[in-house]
Amino acid sequence: MQLISCPWCGPREEIEFHYGGQAHVAYPSSPATLSDREWGDYLFFRDNPKGPFAERWVHSTGCRRWFNAIRDTATHQVLAVYRPDEPKPVIS
Questions:
Q1: Which of 8, 20, 37, 53 has fewest C-beta within 10 Å?
Q2: 1 pLDDT tier (thresholds 50, 70, 90)
């Protein structure tokens, strides 16, 4: 069982969390003007790198708060967690 560290509750088992997609994806500034293709690109097309990747997670069975995590997609190791109002940490 992998432990994920919630920024508010501390380390908890991974079954308490749910993945929420790529972090730092800005909502369109003028959503009413987007074409169907542009909406599709916004909703469904995300980065898919091998290595460190910024993701959104929610502590669904704990505090129910959203946070961001940098996770290595090749090893599944969580490299950093941070609150949504904090800057993205630099991972070398």
A1: 37
A2: confident
